[in-house]
Amino acid sequence: MRNTIRTALFTLSTAILLVVLVTSCMSLSHNLRYTVPQKRTTAPVDAFVLVEVEEEMIPATCVSSSPGIDCDRLLKELPTSTKSWSGSGLMVMSDTGPSILTAAHVCEKDTPDSFVYKEVKITILTAIRIRVHSPLKGTYNASIMRTDVEKDLCLLRPETIFTYPVTISQKSPQIGDKVYAISAPYGISGKNLALVFNGFFSGSGEDMKFYTIPTRPGSSGSVVMNEDWEVIGVLHTAFRDLENVGMGTGLSDVTSFLFSPVETIVVKPLIQP
């Protein structure tokens, strides 16, 4: 009888272990299938995101040499202010795994850390919330992994890896090569809506690459791709009166940024959704 019970317990334990292992393998496979960049034959709209950023600026402390200043009263007089903006981004592979590539000035603005109010210096606490909206996959919170202000590049980590990352090209474009970008100028994007633009690579000038791709506010961070839908650059600048020309970063700088880590910079806490 004792042997029968022992055998039954062993069989039950083995069955439970097998179920756990099978479930784990299924989950592992589901997660790992997104880690390998995919060759594309059509525009990778599933990997495109509208990046929306909200910055909250909160008066924190006051600094005054005058003993008659009531700092608590001054701080209560000052409201919390909020500003928001948007840009474009794309899911690509990096040394930290699948991540959203965009422009640095999309992730953060140059907000001062203090201002003067009634001849008193007021320090500011800033907090940032970033959300990425995929036209096909949904909306996700994201956090800043790192930035390179000089090259105007930013890497975001979404809370969910929602699709396959896009492949990085192994060769730079030549003048006249056809190129593409998926962008959200003026925030134009939505469910089952993504604007795909095309143009030509036009060469280099003063540390920037030129592309004849329509570029307007909100296009910043658009990843430029070749005809194989591989990453070759990122748009970050437009001419005010010449909307069919965009400027940005080229392949070598993008590759170095994605796979040769610069210092990780996460200096502002997220606003809770």
The number of domains: 1
Please give the order of strands in the largest beta sheet.
Answer: 1-2-3-7-6-5
Calculate the terminal CA-CA distance, rounded to whole Å. 59 Å
Q: Indicate the CATH topology.
A: Thrombin, subunit H
Taken as a percent bin, the fraction of beta residues is: 35-45%
Please give the CATH architecture: Beta Barrel
The helix count comes to: 4
CATH class: Mainly Beta
Catalogue the unreliable spans: 1-10, 14-32, 264-273
Mean pLDDT: 83
> In terms of structural class, how would the helical and strand content be classed?
alpha+beta
Order of helices and strands: HEHEEHEEEEEEEEEEH
Shape, please?
A: elongated
Q: Let me know the largest β-sheet.
A: 6 strands, antiparallel, barrel
Structure description:
This protein has 273 residues and is of the alpha+beta class. The protein has one domain: Thrombin, subunit H (Beta Barrel), CATH 2.40.10. It has helices spanning 2-32, 71-77, 104-107, 251-259, and strands at 48-63, 81-94, 97-102, 114-117, 120-134, 138-148, 153-158, 178-183, 195-205, 208-211, 223-225, 231-239, 242-249. Strand 9 (195-205) and strand 10 form a beta hairpin. The model is unreliable at 1-10, 14-32 and 264-273 (pLDDT under 50).
Describe the secondary structure blueprint for this structure.
Elements: H1 2-32, E1 48-63, H2 71-77, E2 81-94, E3 97-102, H3 104-107, E4 114-117, E5 120-134, E6 138-148, E7 153-158, E8 178-183, E9 195-205, E10 208-211, E11 223-225, E12 231-239, E13 242-249, H4 251-259
